[in-house]
């Protein structure tokens, strides 16, 4: 299973970006998906997750109210809409496919990972 993340880039504080992650195989339509990020010198951390139907989402506290995760199973794609970005959001963002139908904040529950897309927020 291949995941292709895109949409990262350089944005100013307060700006917005929309990340996309396309899964090459249709297996993702029955699986939860998630976004994680890793900032320079820091460990990978959970950002957001969504179940296979798209009706159940969960977010890390530091992105609540700013980020929105969604999915389009017909397109095998999951999105992360990011608003009110700040320099602390600078990181490589990774999408992942869960081992089950539900989402999770636990990275060990994910079977497949994308290559990551870099988001840089300037002050």
Structural notes for this entry:
The model has no long low-confidence stretch (mean pLDDT 94). Strands 2, 4, 5, 6, 9, 10 and 11 form a seven-stranded mixed sheet that branches. It contains no helices and eleven strands. It has 123 residues and is an all-beta fold.
Short description:
The protein contains no helices and 11 strands. The protein has 123 residues and is mainly β.
Helices and strands in order, then pairings?
Layout: E1 3-6, E2 9-12, E3 17-23, E4 33-38, E5 45-50, E6 57-59, E7 67-72, E8 77-82, E9 91-98, E10 110-113, E11 117-122
Parallel strand pairs: 2-11
Antiparallel strand pairs: 1-3, 3-8, 4-5, 4-9, 5-6, 7-8, 9-10, 9-11
Search tags:
single chain, 123 residues, mainly beta, seven-stranded mixed beta sheet, four-stranded antiparallel beta sheet, 11 strands, 0% helix
Helix content: under 10%
Order of helices and strands: EEEEEEEEEEE
Note the quaternary state here: single chain
What composes the largest sheet?
A: 7 strands, mixed
Radius of gyration: 13 Å
Q: What is the rounded distance between the termini?
A: 37 Å
Q: What is the residue-averaged pLDDT?
A: 94
Show unreliable segments.
none
Q: What sort of overall outline do the alpha carbons produce when their principal axes are compared?
A: globular
Task: Please identify the structural class as seen in this structure.
Answer: mainly beta
Number of strands: 11
What's the tally of helices? 0
Classify the beta-strand content into a percent band: over 45%
């Amino acid at each position: 299973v291949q995941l292709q993340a895109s949409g990262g880039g350089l944005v100013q504080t307060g700006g917005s970006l929309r990340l996309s992650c396309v899964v090459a195989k249709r297996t993702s339509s029955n699986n939860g998906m998630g976004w994680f990020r890793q900032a320079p010198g820091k460990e990978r951390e959970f950002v957001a997750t969504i179940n296979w139907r798209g009706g159940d989402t969960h977010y890390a506290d530091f992105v609540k109210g700013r980020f929105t995760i969604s999915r389009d199973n017909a397109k095998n794609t999951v999105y992360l809409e990011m608003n009110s970005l700040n320099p602390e959001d600078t990181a490589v963002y990774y999408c992942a496919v869960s081992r089950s139908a539900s989402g999770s904040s636990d990275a060990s529950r994910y079977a497949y990972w994308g290559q990551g897309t870099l988001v840089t927020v300037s002050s």
